[in-house]
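BUG: 3D viewer hangs when loading the predicted structure for this chain

Environment: internal workstation, default settings.
Expected: structure renders.
Actual: progress bar stalls at 90%.

Input used:
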Amino acid sequence: MDVRRLPPERARRARTRVGIALAHTARSVRREATDGWATARRTPRRTVAAGTLAAVSAAALGLIPLLLLPPERPVLAVLEALYAACLIPLRRYRPVVAVLGTGPLLVGPNVWVLALVPLIVVSATRRITPPRRAWLAAGTACAVCVVLTVAGSLIVPGPWLTNMAGNAVSAVLLVLLPALAGTLLGRRRPLVSLLRERNAYLEQARSLTAAAARMEERTRIAGEMHDLLGHRLSLISVHAGALEMAAARQAPPLADQAELLRTTAGTAMEELRDILGLLRREEVTSEPEAGRPEAARGTREDVADLVAESRRAGVAVELIWSVPDTADPSPRTRQSVHRVVREGLTNVLKHASGAPTRVEVVAVTGTAGEIEVSVTNTAPRSDRHPWPGNRSGLVGLEERITLLGGSFTAGPLRGGGFRVAARLPSRPNGMPPLAVPPPPANDPADGPTDRTGTRPPLSTEVLTWPRVLGAGCAAALVVLPTAAFLFLLLAVAVLK
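Structure tokens produced before the viewer hung:
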């Protein structure tokens, strides 16, 4: 439309609209340039270096073959190669623009840049959300290819029908199929992120559960120490006070020794309170086990009662006791033996009901008074459904035995089944440091055991491997025809 032939009013309006459109375009270009520069400055240097290297490689792929096989229109082929190199960084920051920009590459004279089109489309469409936007961009790129093909056939006479069919096949194989592969990979990304977040949450929950089990076990140990030692120290202090008063009246030379005995008992009581304060929380109190006197726990009769209870519940349990009667383990050791047997049999009832089980309590030969207790079960029958568990009981056992100065192992056996074992000092000396001691040597026939009593957290990649393989195989099958078509095109270009 010639503006000079229009009436002055309409011409002025037309010039105003053109000026507004140009100003809007200039502002859009300036805003895009500013946003792109800000994004580039925020991008890590490694990513910028990788993008620059990819763009240079794309330019080399489109330009170097032109030196060996000169095209009919070299200037246009060079410009097309540089244009394709500019689309490489856009696939990350402006993926929709990158997909739309692949349309002109399908109708250009440089056949070597066609190898870049599916790579750009796959990389860009997997970043576009929702997927319908990716399909809209891919369809628009195909429409641009059709329009440019029709326009080129009108400008340059030739077999336009053949060109149209060839470009249509190129659009399908180089744009639509890679877009399908990209959307498959794009749908996989949020699922992988969700699985990683869920795995991190489960690991954190497991850590918190283990910490709670350790604290609960420390609280229970503190209660037992208070019951075993607090009462006796109080009696010693009372009797020492009475002895001091009697010695002051009847044997004054012994009054100082009696006073020292009383003050030492009081100091021991204060130190015991300090240790108990470190072991347990104020708001948690230990719950005594009903029906089992303190002095009877961990004895042969007590362990036999636990085994009998499990037999009545339907578990085939065999008890092997080889601790001599002359051995006199401390109350803390006997309590730990009771806890190991009870926890092991409870786990058998919950997770391997009906599996043959062996309980062994033996005195370790060649050591200075150590007792080894283990609960081993074979693989359960396949028709049994185990109860869910969080292994907090095993964590508590490990904490108890570590504080006692022993070693603890728990884990599955190589041939199936599970084994819980502990080696305890018969007479523990004081409170050991809170470091996990090294496990005893494992018998190769028993299979691998877990030192800490809890399985290590699974890697996030283990959880996402099925998704990775599924999406990767589907994407590979989708782009396989694309790779074959590209190989055919490049082979034809070389043979010409």
